[in-house]
UniProtKB/TrEMBL annotation:
This is Thioredoxin family protein. CDD domains: DsbDgamma. PROSITE patterns: THIOREDOXIN_1, THIOREDOXIN_2. Keywords: Cell membrane, Cytochrome c-type biogenesis, Membrane, Redox-active center, Transmembrane, Transmembrane helix.
Length: 397
């Protein structure tokens, strides 16, 4: 999640370089410059109101999207819904690629563009920044909203969009406070269209993320690799955007090379990873057999549309040490809730109090759950091994 938030923060910064947001830089600087005589402390207070307004708008959107998580989780069990979401992502990406333009009603844009005095005016500017810049940042934000809704956590929705708002608002804030540095900014030009296309490829990657559960895991890896290769070739060499800024050519080349290297890493990691944990289907007879053999049991409640579930499967449950320990000392049971709804599954969910996925339940040698070891998120192999050792010992810490 830390790396994800850093990526979202960087994405917020990059949105400042799109054709719709970049013109707001001199407007913001002139607005704050008119308050420079009120003292640096007052200027920082206005800046806090500005970022606060922007963060409030986006964070509320994030929380509202996450509150639909239960509904979204149910909908994501349908391949047709996954295909529809991916199609919407591609449609928004096409807007960023320049095939069509997202336009808001002129009246709404005029209201958002008005300047008001005092701290309320500064707050209002932050609240409406997303409206003014919607043609460029709208598709990206809408794509992010769909992803947040699939996670179903209001807290994560707030944190993710607050982080995006910081990335979007901080550069404008610092330029306003240190307005003399604006002369050092590169002039607007075709390079901004390149940044916009970069955001378009981010949405294509999100489309691949949503459509991946429909295919076998190996095909899903190759889909991500294909997106990375296409992104690298397009942004690095096919795109003909130019600018007087000499470093732009190097930036394009580095972006293209990074994407190609990422594709190689994805495919290489897939081929080099060893065999995974051998899973069995849940049954009462299997649990009785485990108690007879005095073996602990690990039950993994999972779903193909669940990102942490896939991470657990691809990283933790393919780790050599985890696989070896599971093979020797455990009965490994998987309950697939990708297409949940059967009475037997509902009884299992009620019996173990499963509220969502992933949920990993640890049963000791007597068949009693170790509640203190229950797992409801991704856990790296080294920490997962600690839990396996604890339940294997059969002694509660």
């Amino acid at each position: 999640m830390i790396w994800t938030l850093l990526g979202i923060f960087a994405g917020g910064i990059a949105l400042n370089l799109t054709p719709c947001v970049y013109p707001l830089i001199p407007i913001t600087v002139s607005y704050f410059g008119g308050r420079s005589g009120q003292g640096r402390g007052n200027l920082f207070a206005h800046g806090a109101c500005y970022i606060g307004g922007l963060s409030l708008t986006n964070s509320v959107l994030g929380v509202m999207a996450a509150l639909t998580g239960g509904l979204m989780g149910t909908l994501l069990q349908s391949p047709a819904v996954l295909v529809a979401i991916a199609a919407v992502m591609i449609l928004f990406a096409a807007s960023l690629f320049g095939f069509w333009e997202l336009k808001l009603p002129s009246g709404l844009t005029q209201v958002a563009s008005k300047a008001y005095s005092g701290y309320f005016g500064t707050l209002f500017m932050g609240l409406t920044l997303g409206v003014v810049a919607a043609p460029c940042i709208g598709p990206f934000v809408l794509g992010l909203l769909t992803w947040v809704a699939s996670m179903g956590s209001p807290w994560l929705g707030f944190v993710i969009f607050f982080t995006l708002s910081l990335g979007l608002g901080l550069p404008l804030f610092f330029l306003a406070v240190f307005s003399g540095q604006i002369e050092k900014l590169p002039r607007s030009g075709e390079w901004m269209l390149w940044v916009r296309k970069l955001m378009g490829w981010v949405l294509v990657g999100m489309a691949a993320y949503f459509i991946r559960p429909i295919f076998p895991k190996s095909i899903g890896v190759f889909i991500f690799a294909a997106v990375a290769v296409s992104t690298g070739l397009h942004l690095g060499w096919i795109d003909r955007s130019k600018t007087a800024f000499r470093g732009f050519i190097w930036i394009k080349g580095m972006a293209g090379t990074t994407c190609l290297v990422l594709a190689v890493i994805l495919i290489g990691t897939w081929f080099m990873r060893g065999p995974g944990v051998t899973w069995q289907t849940y049954s009462h007879e299997l649990l009785s057999e485990a108690q007879r053999l005095k073996k602990p049991v690990i039950i993994d409640f999972t779903a193909d549309w669940c990102a942490p579930c896939r991470e657990l499967d691809e990283v933790t449950f393919h780790d050599r040490a985890v696989v070896d320990l599971a093979k020797r000392n455990f009965i490994m049971v998987k309950v697939d809730l990708t297409r949940k709804g059967s009475p037997a599954q509902e009884q299992l969910l009620t019996r173990y109090g499963v509220k969502g996925v992933p949920t990993v339940v640890f049963l000791d040698r007597r068949g009693v759950e170790r509640q203190d070891l229950r797992l409801v998120d991704f856990l790296p192999p080294d920490k997962f091994l600690v839990r396996m050792s604890e339940v294997k010992k059969g002694v509660k810490p």
